[in-house]
Design goal:
- The chain is mainly alpha-helical and 295 residues long.
- The protein folds into 3 domains: 43 residues, no CATH class; 87 residues, no CATH class; 137 residues, Alpha Horseshoe (Serine Threonine Protein Phosphatase 5, Tetratricopeptide repeat), CATH 1.25.40.10.
- The protein has 14 helices and 3 strands.
- The protein has a 3-stranded antiparallel sheet with strand order 2-1-3, with no helix packed on it.
- Helix 7 packs parallel to helix 9 and helix 9 runs antiparallel to helix 10.
Length: 295
């Protein structure tokens, strides 16, 4: 069964603890704690898969070579009786003759019997054995190429996803330690490792606001919302960016979306709306209505 993880880091204990859940096809697979959609993590193929495939091919080739050797070996035994049967008529013919019998017997024995035996031995042993030995060695040489290619192969998507999750976790720990610049570097690295990790982009945009660079946080937050449009935190922080930049209309829109998607987080939203980042829109009628909606 496929496994999934929650990526709502900083807001969900299951995400921070990298807890995996079973993904059931045809049903809504959400995190039991925060209700965030689980993200499927594909399993790695076996590390030695290529070695097993090559080993299986070599075994098949060795078996084919043995069969080929047996086929080469089986036609030769019938040839020996043929040579012997060819000699028997000569013996019977020479026995029926009057005087040349001893000479023909000795001649046929010396001429026929030594010649076929060395020929059959010399033909079968040098020809068949080198063929069977050369085939495995020729096929065994490519086996090193896949091994070296596997050693130099790029990391799989699963490993990149895990590295990105690890970097996001480290970044959140650095934020708690107030090491914002180091945290920003960790979130940037995570975004490069896994371009589909909304936590990497969302936290990168959020920390830009804390560092006094809201304009730099706009693009990462836009990417995070594109990857996960239902995350109220990214919407809330995007509203802060628009408010600080003076775009009141977009700030109200993102703030309204944050409240809609975070309807179960009213206390957190109410506290966030008291932030000075919303001073530019605090007196707007739409902002006042949204504050009343949280009561």
């Amino acid at each position: 069964m496929a496994k999934g993880i929650c990526t709502n880091f900083g807001n969900c204990n299951n995400a921070d603890g990298r807890k995996e859940f079973d993904i059931i096809p045809g049903s809504e697979n959400k995190c039991p704690e925060c209700g965030r959609d689980l993200r499927e993590v594909k399993p790695n193929p076996p590390k030695d898969f290529a070695k097993y495939v090559i080993l299986g091919i070599l075994i098949l080739l060795a078996g084919a070579g043995m069969l080929f050797y047996q086929k080469l070996k089986t036609p030769h035994p019938p040839m020996k009786p043929e040579v012997a049967s060819g000699l028997n008529p000569i013996k019977s013919a020479t026995d029926s003759g009057p005087t040349p019998t001893p000479e023909t017997k000795s001649e046929t024995k010396t001429e026929t019997s030594p010649l076929p035996k060395p020929e059959t031995k010399s033909e079968t042993k040098p020809e068949t054995k080198p063929e069977t030995k050369s085939e495995p060695t020729q096929k065994a040489e490519p086996s090193t190429a896949p091994e070296s290619a596997q050693a130099n192969a790029p990391k799989t998507d699963r490993e990149a996803v895990k590295e990105a999750i690890h970097l996001v976790s480290n970044g959140l720990l650095l934020v708690k330690q107030n090491k914002l610049s180091e945290a920003e570097a960790a979130f940037k690295a995570a975004a490069q490792k896994d371009p589909d990790n909304d936590q990497a982009f969302g936290n990168l945009g959020t920390i830009s606001i804390s560092l006094g660079k809201p304009d730099e946080g706009m693009e990462p937050l836009r990417k995070a919302i594109e990857l996960n449009p239902y995350n109220y935190v990214w919407r809330l922080n995007m509203a802060k960016v628009y408010s600080l930049s003076g775009d009141k209309e977009k700030a109200i829109f993102e703030l309204r979306s944050a409240i809609d998607h975070g309807s179960d987080k009213k206390q957190i939203l109410k506290q966030e709306l008291r932030s000075s980042d919303f001073n530019n829109i605090r007196n707007e009628e739409a902002f006042v209505k949204l504050m009343q909606k949280l009561k």
